[in-house]
Amino acid sequence: MIGIFDSGLGGLTVAKEILDKLPNYKIIYFGDTARTPYGSKSAETITKYAIENTKFLLNKSAKIIVVACHTVSSVSMPALKSLFPEIPFFEVVTPSFKKALIITKNKKIGLIGTRTTVESGIYNLLFSQADPQIKLYSNPSPLLVPLIEEGWINKPETRKIIKKYLIPLKMKGIDTLILGCTHYPLIKKIIQEKAGKRIKLVDPSKEVAIQVKEFIEKNPNLKEKLDPNGEIEIYVSDITPNFKKIAQLFLNKKINLIKVNLE
Amino acid sequence: MIGIFDSGLGGLTVAKEILDKLPNYKIIYFGDTARTPYGSKSAETITKYAIENTKFLLNKSAKIIVVACHTVSSVSMPALKSLFPEIPFFEVVTPSFKKALIITKNKKIGLIGTRTTVESGIYNLLFSQADPQIKLYSNPSPLLVPLIEEGWINKPETRKIIKKYLIPLKMKGIDTLILGCTHYPLIKKIIQEKAGKRIKLVDPSKEVAIQVKEFIEKNPNLKEKLDPNGEIEIYVSDITPNFKKIAQLFLNKKINLIKVNLE
Question: What is the pTM of this model?
Answer without folding.
Answer: 0.88
